[in-house]
């Protein structure tokens, strides 16, 4: 029996209430929007009822035994190595839906309202749930792949809005303890959050939203989804924008790479989309190595031709 399976059997004996899925040698290509990635030694997706307690035991025990644990959300901003992930992947996607775990009611009576979501909730589901209740603010997330936990971790941004503009409180699992705190906006920047430098697991968060006519909210949601569809975000497996935009460059990264003639550049089955200068697509059989080689080629070209350094938005795991 492997070290990982022995470890997980011991964890299960400590927490017999575990419900969920545990798989060994699970292909990560099944859990990322790029559809690439080799096997994880172990992949675990706990159900809602046991997620916080089981995760606390798992993370603390793994730390003590120096077993790496990778936190996975919707897999929307990741390129997992063809060799996979060593250690354990903790999948948060079953820990979804609304919650009043902070001890505050989900809705109020003022011009503003709060909604509380677990971290595994998809951005699409959160936007729809708010819209159904006449609460505005999350429309810009509609059609964006991934989960709220990952979106908060990276401070997801689109259409001149970012998630830090709306989040009020966050519930974390840190050092084996569940902590709730008010968000300090000073810790956020362009696609950056304070969680990127902390050893913690985002469990849930609250959003401060505005009451508005449902028809207006749904019009904005449908507009965002249509815009993403027209930009080709769903034509092939991808991870959205590959590089961050830098205001100092004077134009978007997509426009820069377009002007350099990079659209359609292909390595293996990875291609810079012919219709968008900042999206790499998997044409069908791309490997993580193909995607990395293409990213490096684009970085080198931008450096040689323009003397600029492109900053990656997607994470290579």
What is the structure about, briefly put?
The protein is α+β, with helices and mostly antiparallel strands. It has helices at residues 3-14, 51-64, 123-132, 148-154, 214-230, 253-259, 288-306, and strands at 20-27, 39-46, 69-72, 78-79, 85-91, 112-118, 135-136, 157-158, 161-162, 167-174, 177-182, 201-211, 238-241, 266-267, 270-272, 279-282, 315-316.
Describe this structure in words.
With 317 residues, this protein is α+β, with helices and mostly antiparallel strands. It has three domains: 3-91, Uridine Diphospho-n-acetylenolpyruvylglucosamine Reductase, domain 2, CATH 3.30.43.10; 112-226, 2-Layer Sandwich (Uridine Diphospho-n-acetylenolpyruvylglucosamine Reductase, domain 3), CATH 3.30.465.10; 233-316, UDP-N-acetylenolpyruvoylglucosamine reductase, C-terminal domain (Uridine Diphospho-n-acetylenolpyruvylglucosamine Reductase, domain 1, Alpha-Beta Complex), CATH 3.90.78. 27% of the residues lie in helices and 26% in strands. The chain contains seven helices and 17 strands. The protein has helices spanning 3-14, 51-64, 123-132, 148-154, 214-230, 253-259, 288-306, and strands spanning 20-27, 39-46, 69-72, 78-79, 85-91, 112-118, 135-136, 157-158, 161-162, 167-174, 177-182, 201-211, 238-241, 266-267, 270-272, 279-282, 315-316.
Please give the structural blueprint:
Elements: H1 3-14, E1 20-27, E2 39-46, H2 51-64, E3 69-72, E4 78-79, E5 85-91, E6 112-118, H3 123-132, E7 135-136, H4 148-154, E8 157-158, E9 161-162, E10 167-174, E11 177-182, E12 201-211, H5 214-230, E13 238-241, H6 253-259, E14 266-267, E15 270-272, E16 279-282, H7 288-306, E17 315-316
Parallel strand pairs: 2-5, 3-5, 4-17
Antiparallel strand pairs: 1-2, 6-12, 7-12, 8-9, 10-11, 10-12, 13-16, 14-15, 15-16
Helix pairs in contact: 1-2, 3-5
